[in-house]
Amino acid sequence: MTTHDFPVSGQRVLVVGAARSGVAAALLLARRGARVTLTDRKDVIADAPLLIDAGVALELGGHRATSFDRADLVVMSPGVPLDQPEVARARAAGVPVIGELELASRWLRGPIVAITGTKGKSTTTTLVGRMLEAAGRRVLVGGNIGVPLSSQVDASTADTVHVVEASSFQLETTDRFHPWIAALLNISVDHLDRHPSVEAYTEAKARMFANQTPADWTVVNAEDPEALRLAARSRARQMRYAVDPAPGSAVFIDRGFLWQRTSEGQVPLAPLSAVRLSGRHMLSNVAAATAISTLAGVGPAAIEHALVGFTGLEHVMEPVGTLAGVRFVNDSKATNVDAAARSIESFSGVVAIIGGTFKGGTLADLAEPLSRHGRAVVAIGLARPLVRQALDATVPVFEASSLADAVRRAWALARPDGVVLLAPACASFDMFVDYADRGRRFKEEVRRLADEARAMGEP
Hints:
Elements: E1 12-16, H1 20-31, E2 35-40, H2 48-53, E3 57-60, H3 65-70, E4 73-76, H4 85-92, E5 97-99, H5 100-105, E6 112-116, H6 121-134, E7 138-143, E8 160-165, H7 168-171, E9 181-184, H8 198-206, E10 217-221, H9 225-231, E11 237-241, E12 251-254, E13 257-262, E14 265-271, H10 280-295, H11 300-308, E15 318-323, E16 326-330, H12 337-344, E17 350-355, H13 367-373, E18 374-380, H14 384-391, E19 397-399, H15 403-414, E20 419-422, H16 435-455
Parallel strand pairs: 1-2, 1-4, 2-3, 4-5, 6-8, 6-9, 7-8, 9-10, 10-11, 16-20, 17-18, 17-20, 18-19
Antiparallel strand pairs: 12-13, 13-14, 15-16
């Protein structure tokens, strides 16, 4: 399932991009004896002392074509687009170009459980890790979820299950990546600010199945036709899951329980009362995690134990508080249209804060859930005019120049009994460092608003 014969000692390896994954890859390569250079367009990086101490050479302030030409291997950090002219030049010269996920996977000793999809990856990945831990398995959870896989290689053992969240940016630079269990949660339009087309985006996702064999497993959402189409490429055995008991689904929800359909009949796995998450899309993530975990040998008791203790991830349908009858919910990780739609559908009386850097798709697709669940929209960021154009005929759309202004406008519009929902449907980079920074700022503004309201005698 994994390969360990990837010698790099003495080789000249160029790592492109000094974010977390790039830094972790550079340090791993240095420990393995490579002659490592890390290049980044930024003039200053925070990890420079650590890298220099490890023997990594730094080239900052821009990429040097000669470094690409002279490299024996180029390793891309997932945040760096592949359309860099230097990358094309290296490939034309026959220099192998791979990603950090691919690099790390070649040295893992235990089986890989890889999870991808347009939405729900982090929640599902976290739940699988919890279920395996509850069953007594040795687990490392990493990848796109925030812990670079390269930082976990040294801790990998033959009995370690690596639960890996894999993004399209990571998968597009894979070559030998070989998951024992590969799960595809869903496919909808996203990341068209990076991928040249929807087809390129879906093809990147499908690379997860390229090296699977009939000894492996593919887990796929039975309610997502595009996911089913892509998963059909895998040579692995297939297990399907669904929220409803859809035809062909081996794991599903019915009559207040999570069930598994087996050759001996339907087996109850966990009561639905154990689930502490809101929204149908969250139930789909629970079903996915349960399907994956049953394949990995996790029994009903461990599944239920993992669910009971899990109240969700920060910035994913996260309850922030209630002020004067209005609930505030932080779903900053809803960075695409489909994720925002699923979030809106989970509540009634929604005033949605939408906007940022638009990544593609159709904002007008939010009109239908807003017509049923929404009261108004407060638009923020660069996408404000796009939000107004797409949604103003459905619900009132107001613009805010800052998140502080947006929170206050939304609260006024949601009173007396609505929900202020941060579901941006966009990336955050026009106003914030990332989606997590945006979510934290939202929570800070809600707390500040509550303090102001109390000072004025609000209940």
